[in-house]
Amino acid sequence: MSNETRKCKVVAYGETKYGSFVKYAPIEYTDEGNHPYTAEKAIVELDDGSVVTVNPSQVSFPPKG
């Protein structure tokens, strides 16, 4: 896996933000019954410096070229 950053666009909650994709990662959560489950999330460092985890479907990458 390369260490190069990939610019991406994140569309969540009606807002579009830009940043650098870090990686996909399994994130542990617990449901209302306190049962653990794992969800795949995308970790993105936004241009404002904040780091967010979002659903992979909310991340898009510009075409290479």
Structure overview:
- 0% of the residues lie in helices and 62% in strands.
- The mean pLDDT is 91.
- With 65 residues, the protein is mostly beta strands.
- A five-stranded antiparallel sheet has the order 4-3-2-1-5, with no helix packed on it.
- It is built from no helices and five strands.
- The chain has strands at 6-12, 15-30, 36-46, 51-54, 59-60.
Q: Write the element-wise H/E pattern from the N-terminal end onward.
A: EEEEE
Number of DSSP-assigned strands: 5
Uncertain segments are none
Rg (CA only): 13 Å
Biggest sheet: strand arrangement: 4-3-2-1-5
- Share of helix among residues? under 10%
Our count of helices gives: 0
Q: What separation lies between the terminal Cα atoms?
A: 20 Å
Write a brief structural summary.
This protein is an all-beta fold and 65 residues long. It has no helices and 5 strands.
Question: What is the secondary structure topology, with strand pairs?
Answer:
Elements: E1 6-12, E2 15-30, E3 36-46, E4 51-54, E5 59-60
Antiparallel strand pairs: 1-2, 1-5, 2-3, 3-4
Using brief descriptors, characterize the structure shown.
65 residues, mainly beta, 5-stranded antiparallel sheet, 62% strand
